[in-house]
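sorry for the late reply, my laptop died twice this morning and i had to redo everyting from scratch. anyway the thing you sent over, i finally got around to it. pasting the sequence first so we're on the same page, its 578 residues, then the predicted structure underneath. double check i copied it right bc i was rushing
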Amino acid sequence: MPRTIGMDKLVRAVLAGFLIINQSGVLVMDIDDKKIWKAAIYVRLSRDDGDKAESESVKNQKDLIRSYINGRPDMIEAGVYEDDGFSGVNMDRPGFQRMMADIRDNKINAVVVKDLSRLGRNYIETGKLLESLFPFMRVRCVAITDNYDSAKQNNQSDSLIIPFKNLINDAFLADTSRKVRSQLDIKRKKGDYIGSFSNYGYKKDPLNHNKLVIDEAIAPVIQDIFRWKIEGMSQDAIAKRLNASGSPAPLEYKKLIGCKYSTPFTSKERSVWTAVTVGRILKNSLYIGTLTQGVMTTPNYKVKSRLKKPPEEWASVPQAHEGIISREDFSLVESLMKRDTRIAPGRDKVYMLSGLLYCGDCGQNLVRKSVTAANGIKYCYHICSTHKKNKECASHRISEPALLNAVCASIEQHLRLCVSIEDILRRAENMPAKQLDIRRVRQQIENKRAEISKIAARNMKMYNDLNDGLISREDFIEFKASYARQRESAESALTLLMKELEGISTHGDSQSQWIQHFRKYHEIKELTRPVLVDLIDQIVVYEHGKIEIIFRFQDEFNDAQNYIESLPGIAAFERPAI
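ok and here's the structure:
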């Protein structure tokens, strides 16, 4: 709303001739020769532009502009338009757009700002505004500290200085943008969380907002999602179960805890769980403690459309915070989601062997079939999906009960082998042969380090000989290249020896990690879906009922057997049967 004109300003307007007294004694505006400017006060502040909050505050800007307007009899305040927290890189600001609408409605015909950077920092857009749009709409523009007034452009220097100032404002914003991006990139690589809102299942540490801590109220929901997936539930079934139990979806939970978070992707008043939401959680490595940031970016500070960066450019920091899910469970779920585990109609879980059975000839999945005999008994079996589709492969037909019995027997045998391997490896730790290997490699390492020291000493002496004139520059260059090759060879050999020593010293520890994975099922009483997917990677079915089971950690299992075979002093009957 227009402000009331004070008596002092009214007197100045009369004396200046902007207001006259007619024959009836009434004050009227002299519209023939003079003009009253209805001035808009426009203020803007954004730390993203590098503005200093103390000196550039919107209050200070308003006070400066009001003082300017009150000191001019030809101006009255017609409105205040404010954009606090909006960058000057584009013109899509609510206060600015409201001001432009009032200009089109002839409510204002002048714009007063502290300086041109408040109007905008985009060189091209601000230039169009000052040189084309405002003149076309007959709008006066005043930038106080820049000493710019479009109504008083009487010299040619303005046509050079004003575009140059706009260019400086634009360059300042570009420099600020580069600095901000660089600082954020450093924080990402350090594992600092820089998001405005924490992810579902976590909250910001009250003592350090760049660190995430587990939200104990939501962590059980995340754990249930992964557990249900391992048990064989689909993402859609998990979503329905969460909705039925009343567990708040991620967006709804943000609203419940008071976050001012919005997204254009919601179409309902209350957000609910969907298969897509569940899938995102199951694929997010955040829940094992790995913080991945910098996935999306913008081309530059002027273009705000977001683009996805290639994975090699992401900032991924393992163990950046405490995980909610174990790495084993996450890896298992990741593997399950890559398999064909479609759920039969009317069921909310996959069959026990879904996604584990493969044809030994064509490599495709086996599918489950069932038939009902005349006596009403239902029989289930599995056949090759290629055979079912076009008969281009043998059927590999095998009954489900026979298959489950064979799998159960193989699991029991594999668990016994793992226990035997663990026992032999534990005894091998104290075998004289291993201790001799460790001493041998350590001595080789000491010898190689001494060799590197001698090469370094010779290299230093060579510099002294050059300075003393004992060798020529040509000899110096030749000797230097020779010593560099010798040192590179010795350092490569030292690296290999260090790896060999580490392998000998930690062989038992590295073996025990995967063995403990199987050992926890040593007293297994029942074969369930979670047990199967946690122990078995693939079940390969050949013709005539022959099967091959590939267990998880199969490479580690084979390495352990080969290591045991190489150990002297282990009686043949003590080795696990292979």
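Residues 321 and 469 are 60 Å apart (CA to CA).
thats about all i looked at so far, will dig more tmrw
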